[in-house]
Amino acid sequence: QVQLVESGGGSVQAGGSLRLSCTASGFTFSSYCMAWFRQAPGKEREAVADFDSTTRTTYADSAKGRFTISKDNAKNTLYLQMNNLKPEDTAMYYCATDLRIWCVPLGSDDYYYWGQGTQVTVSS
Fold it and tell me: What is each CA distance from 66 to 21, 36, 49, 60, in whole angstroms?
């Protein structure tokens, strides 16, 4: 069965960096779109970045220039390198897939499989 397990969250000060990981199992990781989402308390879940099977990547405006999504197909792992973190980046971060080759438009959260999330807290 499909499993997604996030790790790497933590507490950092503004301007700091974190690298999130999402280890996948139960499917051919390299063949499908993968995405990162986040949800802050009291706010709707929002897409952060995605990475399709052709290596095309897409970023939310809030992530451009600061976050980098990448994959290691040999390790079945999706990454999100986050630099210059801001307090508004504080949220639970989730990885997701729907076993589609192409990613849906970044604003959509139409994904079936989700990890349990990893908490990122950025203090000012």
Answer: 16, 14, 11, 11
| CA–CA distances in Å: residue 31 to residues 65, 99, 114 | 26, 8, 17
- Tell me phi and psi for residue 88, to 5 degrees: -70, -5
Amino acid making up residue 82? M
pLDDT tens track for 73-93 = 999 999 999 999 999 999 999
Specify the pairing of strand 118-123 against strand 10-13.
parallel
The per-residue pLDDT for 55 is: 84
- Other CB atoms closer than 10 Å to residue 42's CB: what's the count? 5
Tokens of 55: 């290596």
Average pLDDT, whole number, for the chain? 96
Pick the closest to residue 79 from 3, 6, 2, 30 (CA basis): 6
Q: Collapsing DSSP states into helix, strand and coil, what is residue 74?
A: helix
